[in-house]
Amino acid sequence: MATDVVFDAALPWQRARSVALRPEPFGALVYHFGNRKLSFLKSKQLVSVVQTLADHPSALAAIEAGGVPEAQRPAYVKALADLARSQMIEPRESA
Amino acid sequence: MPETPQTDAPVLETPAAEEALVEESLVEEVSIDGMCGVY
Amino acid sequence: MTAVLPERPVGGRLIDQFEYGLDAPICLTWELTYACNLACVHCLSSSGRRDPRELSTAEAEHVIDELQRMQVFYVNVGGGEPTVRPDFWHLLDYAIGHDVGVKFSTNGVKLDKTRAAQLARTDYVDVQISLDGATAEVNDRVRGEGSFATATRALANLAEAGMKDFKVSVVVTRENAGQLDEFKALTDSYGAQLRITRLRPSGRGADVWDQLHPTQAQQRDLYQWLLANGEHVLTGDSFFHLSAFGEALPGLNLCGAGRVVCLIDPVGDVYACPFAIHENFLAGNVRDEGGFQRVWQSSELFADLRSPQTGGACTKCAHFDACRGGCMAAKFFTGLPLDGPDPECVQGYGETALAARDASLTAPRSHLDHSHTGPVRGQPTLLGMPAIPPAKICDESPLAGLDLR
Questions:
Q1: Is C333:C364 a contact under the CB 8 Å cutoff?
Q2: Most buried among A43, C147, C159, C245, using CB within 10 Å?
Q3: Which of residues 57 through 96 in chain C touch A, CB cutoff 8 A?
């Protein structure tokens, strides 16, 4: 299962299908209708990365394209790993 | 996982706060049942 | 013009953000009807008789449309007894079909095998059965003769139908506080999840609060029990005032009223919280221009609640960060000031405050009371009223139990 594997940012990812994402002044709220988990995304930039994941060949590419400064990229990878663990994002089948 | 209040994260009020977010997690998980005011 | 809202901090803790409010509630309680087949002594909404001004089916659908637009994740439907509304099942499907998850709270009266099977095959719906005693003896004193049987029959039907994740919701009282292990065993036996919540002095709860609210000793035991057993037990964060005993309990530890949650009542009135059905906490009505969204985003009451709250005397207490001054509704309906201690403050400040109340003033009462006015079949016996046996199903109507679909 994805949750048992170390998050691989070099792979393509996407927002999970049972997940609703609602922008808020501080970032966004993300709710998974299946496992009923609720997550709070604390930056607008992270919200944008999550929303554009499916458009990029890898999570790393989405982070770069989102304009995240290099010094902050590890934190964004960690954030995506947290989201993968709670199944808010899922691996994408490459076309 | 149930979420306990973070006491180590500072409340940030300056415009440079976005950079300081590196120090703390960008994602916080909450229980949907953990809201008072729903029965 | 509404006041300029204070600047919200960037980043930081989630609860700091929540205190400033959200563009939409995360979840909200929606009482569909004040009608109820029961007459529980502590009913927070003083339910029993239907209000003639209840929202119509079409009006309820419009509310759901709004919740969808606002991306409310789920709605917690209750009442009264929501399933006595003839359009309940239609509204349930309508909500789910419009991206709004539903959890509904019920005494189980309508959950026969057919409905249980229907629920088991429906996605995005949760069911919560109310029960206030692990035995009929303890439960029926508060909820009425036969109510334990009704609830457990519903639980059995749900289990048999393969329903997942249904819940038993218990209001902790002086009379059942010693049954926590038995409640856990009971819910485990049905494959259900236990939820325990706090009794507030709201609705009819105000009349029995002195008699039924847990003692300080019971609160301490409850806190220890939650620390030891609470991992799979839900609380709706309703015991965050107990965090002042020491280690914080899981949850936001924050009063959600007007910030992350609110109530829509059967006539469309929007209150800050289901435990605060009182004019002082009335923010507007969904029938007003702008509907629910305008009330949530722009009402004066909610703007007030989303500005920094003064903890008053409580801010000097070492435990304030954990308990945040406790429950607004509990303070209000016991006649205590909102910027002072919770009546059940675990440090004892609440008892001091209660004793200091002006004896000549009566505590606030809700302007609404939909309680049954005459004797009710299967009524509770806590207050010494005689037990009248519950109705046999055919007593209600010659067509009772007949499904013509």
A1: yes
A2: C147
A3: 71, 73
In this complex, which of C10, C26, C99 lies closest to A29 when CB atoms are compared?
Answer: C26
Do residues C325 and C314 touch, judged by C-beta distance below 8 A?
Answer: yes
Best CA proximity match to C32, nearest among C52, C47, C54, C53: C54
Sheet of A27-32, strands arranged across:
A19-24, A27-32, A37-41, B27-31
Instruction: Write out the two tokens for A42.
Output: 């604390």
Question: To the nearest 10°, the Cα dihedral for C216, C383, C203, C200?
Answer: 10
Decide if A82 and B27 are in contact by the 8 Å CB cutoff.
yes
Are the C-beta atoms of C13 and A40 separated by less than 8 Å? no
The type of residue at C124 is Y
pLDDT at C402: 56
Answer whether A89 touches B (CB < 8 Å): no
Q: What is the pLDDT of residue C375?
A: 83
Whether residues A31 and C99 touch (CB distance < 8 A) is answered with no
Residues sharing a CB contact under 8 Å with residue B19, sequence separation 6 or more, in sequence order: A69, A72
Top residue of A31, A38, A41 to mutate, by most chain C CBs within 10 Å, is A31
> How much is the average pLDDT of C206-212?
96
Q: Which residues of A are less than 8 Å from B10 in CB distance? A: none
Please, are residues C1 and A18 in contact by the beta-carbon 8 Å criterion?
no
State the chains in contact with C (3 or more Cβ–Cβ pairs under 8 Å). Answer: A, B
Compare all CA atoms of chain B with the CA of C170 and give the residue at the minimum distance: B39
Residue B12 has pLDDT above 60, yes or no: no
Q: pLDDT digits over C327-337, tens only?
A: 999 999 999 99
Which residues have a Cβ under 8 Å from the Cβ of C98 and sit 6 or more positions away? C64, C65, C67, C68
Q: Which of A31, A42, A43 sits opposite C73 (nearest CB)?
A: A31
Query: CA dist C23 to A20, C64, C292, C303, C344, Å?
Result: 15, 16, 12, 12, 32
Average pLDDT over residues A68-73: 95
Beta-sheet strands, E only, within C116-178: 125-130, 167-172
pTM, rounded to two decimals: 0.89
Residues of B in contact with C275 (CB under 8 A): 37, 39
> Which of chain C's residues have a Cβ under 8 Å away from the Cβ of A29?
22, 26, 73
Query: How would you label A50-63 residue by residue, b for 16+ Cβ within 10 Å and e otherwise?
Result: bebbeebebbbbbb
Q: Shortest CB distance from C13 goes to which of B9, B18, B34?
A: B9
CB distance C139 to C150 below 8 Å: no
Selecting from C44, C262, C321 the residue whose C-beta is nearest the C-beta of B39 gives C44
